[in-house]
Amino acid sequence: MDEINGLAELIERGGIYRGVAGTTPREVMTAFIKALPPLPSVPKDTLLQAVLEREELMSTGIGEGIALPHPRNPLVSTEAEQFAALAFLDIAVNWNSLDGKPVETLLLIVSASAKTHLRVLSEITFFSREQGFRRLLVGRSSLEELLLYIRETEKNWRRKP
Hints:
Strand order of the largest sheet: 1-4-5-3-2
Number of strands: 5
Low-confidence stretches: none
Largest sheet: 5 strands, mixed
CATH class: Alpha Beta
CATH superfamily: Mannitol-specific EII, Chain A
Order of helices and strands: HEHHEEEEHHH
Mean pLDDT: 90
Radius of gyration: 15 Å
CATH architecture: 3-Layer(aba) Sandwich
Shape: globular
């Protein structure tokens, strides 16, 4: 796995946003994307529209209170522009998740290629099943704590033959 494309690196670029408000996925995504810093190559309204269009196809709520909103197609053209941003919602929102649980945490993924996007989705799916990671999300841990946990896990993956 390229270091630049690891989940920890992507979240470090995108950051954590706390207290994101809204009572519907549309309201939450609007508030979340508005909170992001300016994106050099993608207008925020373009990103929001792409994420909402993807959500209309099928809910990105994967269960355990987590949703993975993302554009259906890459919106950035280089690896340096890729990021993942984590949002802790102000209140839990019905996201039509697979397990029926309301969503409290979002992980927005913006990738430059389908290959990277699928790998990041796979990595996040793995982490979402890990009790330690979920505990960090439920506890709304700091960016540093989350990155440490993710990096330690990613190191162990690289050590395996």
